[in-house]
């Protein structure tokens, strides 16, 4: 032991490098050699990504050395053919890197990222990404355009489905987990795929939740909120690539934001991977009104540090003339090509360019499906369970209705190019397979798809419901209603789904509503009318079994909302970690209905709130019930006055007071009460999943380094400021005991 320590110290102080450093240095040397050999055209080729739409033309482009990457080839034979051309028919034989949107699974589809986030389980999330990488890499894909770690606080924005929700800490933890899963322990392993954190940056703050829309994020908001997951991705997960966003922030399109790309990403974070533009986001700078033509767009993107261009071809068209005109320099081009080659070397593509393509051996493997079922179970959030209607107790007859009970395509969710619906386990299929022998299951969709407006069969539904012990009503959204370019201004259930629920209430049979959707929907009335509500997101291939397991108590729900559920669209933006106003509401405000007629001018108590819907959400961030109940003991702090380099220990007892075994996600929130800038009313700083048998109790301990309270204050430097802090431990962001501590 002692000898090892001496050796380690010797290595550190003698300046000798560790093996990882040596290989990094070796890679740089290899790049030096290669760059010297490369003609300008070959360099430009590396910076160009083609789309797989027209492979016959692509083969020719590749042969001319004018492509460094192709996006969306999923057939290993085509991948190998393209690669063979790059390796054998170009002068320097530089391998291609094949990219694809493998967002929440490749063949085996896991819950949408927002659903995975509800599991609050980085371990499972990492495993899911690993499986996605194993399945995708077998086709030749060595690069995924994931994870999407945009902070998403507006459920109108369809891409909230792809995000981990509204919180920078949760998004950071899960983003890091996804990257580790995709990239594996060693990028050169053939099952490792380079991750691409996207979209850099601020895309989720699109005005009005309308996709691609403008954002107005200040530097401080960027640093304290929107950039946090990206910084973690670079520093904690050795992120290989990053994608620029579509939005223009404060008038500057992301694909030429030098502050973000050069100052923050490269200089401050020392990012060593490469930057790719989003699909045509370079040419779109003309539409933004930021560049007069595509040539100027190429110039600005290159100078800002966008290393590879996704599909829009301006680098190929203009780099040579931009160089001649001295609008860009060869040093910049060399640096950008170096960034791309570095990732290719790290992936081992030079040594191992081809793929075996044993697809049958890896797609939909039993263990992959099991994992998909597990994570779907963990992602389901129990929103209501009046009179403990769930888990279902030995029903004789159940009536199953709704457009999402048997919608194999829809339940996979957005961004599914490769998963096949014939592999999907729908809820009705799972229920029939697992319980069909013992229980009389009557299934009638009544409403055929989520937007269906046909209520012809409502009377029939009521009649069936009357004969049943329980109604299971599967409502929600089709997959195409969320995701890219699918923003909505009305978040109520589409079509006549709410009307179906309303009509079923008349049957007096208890109703369990299960919602499968890509975003928080405004379901206040639907929740009121249901006896129990499960939010299952778009749960993926094995969603049906996961839901059946939860309904019958084989699994106890433990999911928590990664995003606030507003009561109505007018409350948006609504997120738990907002700033206070000078006049925060305290619940005692007058509401619309108790304002007297002909009331004279009054400011109604001078509080910041909505007259018609108050200030509370329908469900707060972090909310989720269980079939059991948990009792939180009193919080003990190791100290109440701390120095900035100290660590606070927080402990308490958590007891399962109900009759089912279950898992509770305990959440730790902090508020800095007064600082050089106003800070959020609560910020999640940590969480843990605690498993408890009935009546069991455990001591739970959190370690909070005071350094974790640092933020960018008035001087734009990250540091902890002295002062008082509130700390909560709770079951969600709106509950929990509060204690005070001080930092000196
Ligand atoms: C999306 C990206 C995606 C890319 C490639 C774009 O439209 O914004 O997230 O990775 O397409 O498919």
TrEMBL record:
- Gene3D superfamilies linked: Glycoside hydrolase family 3 C-terminal domain (3.40.50.1700), Glycoside hydrolase, family 3, N-terminal domain (3.20.20.300), Immunoglobulins (2.60.40.10)
What are the Fibronectin type III-like domain coordinates in residue numbering? Answer: 664-733
Keyword Oxidoreductase set for record: no
Give one GO term, molecular function aspect. beta-glucosidase activity
The enzyme class is hydrolase
Could you provide one GO biological process annotation from this protein's UniProt record?
glucan catabolic process
Which Pfam families does this chain map to? Fn3-like, Glyco_hydro_3, Glyco_hydro_3_C
**Sequence similarity:** Belongs to the glycosyl hydrolase 3 family.
Q: What is this protein called?
A: beta-glucosidase
Q: Give the species this sequence originates from.
A: Flavobacterium potami
**In the record, what lineage is assigned to the organism producing the protein?**
Bacteria, Pseudomonadati, Bacteroidota, Flavobacteriia, Flavobacteriales
């Amino acid at each position: 032991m002692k000898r090892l320590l001496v050796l380690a110290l010797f290595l550190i102080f003698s300046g000798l490098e560790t093996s990882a450093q040596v290989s990094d240095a070796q890679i740089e040397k290899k790049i030096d050699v290669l760059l010297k050999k490369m003609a300008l055209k070959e360099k430009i080729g590396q910076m160009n990504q083609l789309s797989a739409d027209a492979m016959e033309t692509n083969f020719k482009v590749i042969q001319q050395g004018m492509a460094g990457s192709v996006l969306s080839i999923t057939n290993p034979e085509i991948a190998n053919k393209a690669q063979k051309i790059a390796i054998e028919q170009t002068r320097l034989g530089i391998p291609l890197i094949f990219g694809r949107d493998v967002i929440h699974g490749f063949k085996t589809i896991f819950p949408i990222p927002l659903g995975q986030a509800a599991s609050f389980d980085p371990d499972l999330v990492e495993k899911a990404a690993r499986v996605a990488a194993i399945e995708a890499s077998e086709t030749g894909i060595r690069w995924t355009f994931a994870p999407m770690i945009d902070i998403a606080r507006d459920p109108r924005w369809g891409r909230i489905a792809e995000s981990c929700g509204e919180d920078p800490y949760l998004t950071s933890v899960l983003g890091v987990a996804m990257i580790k899963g995709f990239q594996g322990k060693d990028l050169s392993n053939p099952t490792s795929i380079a991750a691409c954190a996207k979209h850099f940056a601020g895309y989720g703050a699109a005005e009005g939740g309308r996709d691609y829309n403008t954002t107005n994020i200040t530097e401080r908001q960027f640093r304290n909120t929107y950039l946090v997951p990206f910084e973690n991705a670079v520093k904690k997960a050795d992120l290989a690539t990053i994608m620029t966003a579509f939005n223009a922030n404060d008038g500057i399109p992301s694909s030429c934001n030098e502050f973000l790309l050069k100052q923050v990403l490269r200089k401050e974070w020392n990012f060593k991977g490469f930057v790719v533009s989003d699909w045509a986001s370079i040419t779109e700078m003309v539409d933004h009104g930021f560049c007069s033509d595509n040539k100027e767009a190429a110039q600005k993107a290159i100078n800002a540090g966008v290393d590879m261009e996704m599909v829009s071809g301006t680098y190929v068209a203009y780099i040579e003339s931009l160089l001649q005109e001295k609008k860009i320099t060869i040093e910049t081009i060399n640096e950008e090509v170096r960034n791309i080659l570095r990732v290719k070397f790290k992936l081992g593509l030079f040594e191992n360019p081809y793929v075996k393509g044993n697809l049958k051996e890896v797609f939909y493997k039993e263990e992959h499906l099991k994992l998909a079922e597990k994570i779907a179970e963990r992602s389901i959030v129990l929103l209501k369970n009046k009179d403990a209607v769930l888990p279902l107790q030995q029903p004789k007859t159940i009536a199953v209705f709704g457009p999402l009970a048997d919608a194999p395509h829809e339940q996979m969710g957005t961004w599914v190019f490769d998963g096949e619906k014939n592999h999907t386990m729908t809820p009705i299929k799972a229920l029939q397979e697992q319980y069909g022998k013992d229980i009389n299951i009557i299934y009638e969709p009544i409403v055929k798809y989520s937007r269906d407006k046909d209520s012809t069969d409502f009377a029939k539904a009521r009649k069936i419901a009357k004969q049943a012990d329980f109604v299971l009503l599967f409502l929600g959204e089709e997959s195409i209603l969320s995701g890219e370019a699918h923003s909505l201004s009305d978040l109520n259930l589409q079509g006549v789904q709410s009307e179906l629920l309303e009509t079923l209430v008349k049957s007096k049979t208890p109703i369990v509503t299960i919602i499968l959707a890509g975003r928080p929907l405004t379901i206040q009335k639907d929740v009121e009318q249901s006896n129990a509500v499960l939010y299952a997101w778009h749960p993926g291939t094995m969603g049906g079994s996961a839901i059946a397991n939860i309904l019958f108590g084989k699994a106890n729900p433990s999911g928590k909302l990664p995003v606030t559920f507003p009561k109505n669209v007018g409350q948006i933006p609504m997120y738990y970690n907002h700033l206070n106003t000078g006049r925060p509401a305290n619940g005692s405000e007058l509401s619309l209905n108790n304002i007297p007629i002909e009331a004279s001018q009054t400011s109604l108590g001078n509080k910041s709130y909505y007259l018609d819907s108050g200030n509370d959400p329908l469900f707060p961030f972090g909310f989720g019930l269980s079939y059991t109940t948990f009792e939180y003991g009193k919080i003990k702090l190791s100290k109440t006055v701390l120095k900035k380099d100290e660590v606070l220990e927080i402990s308490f007892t958590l007891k399962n007071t109900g009759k089912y075994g279950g898992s509770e996600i305990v959440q730790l929130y902090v508020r800095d009460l007064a600082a050089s800038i106003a800070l959020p009313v609560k910020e999640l700083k940590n969480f843990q999943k605690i498993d408890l048998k009935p009546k069991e109790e455990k001591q739970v301990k959190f370690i909070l380094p005071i350094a974790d309270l640092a933020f960018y204050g008035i001087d734009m430097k990250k540091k902890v400021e002295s002062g008082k802090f509130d700390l909560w431990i709770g079951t969600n962001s709106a509950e929990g005991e509060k204690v005070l501590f001080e930092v000196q």
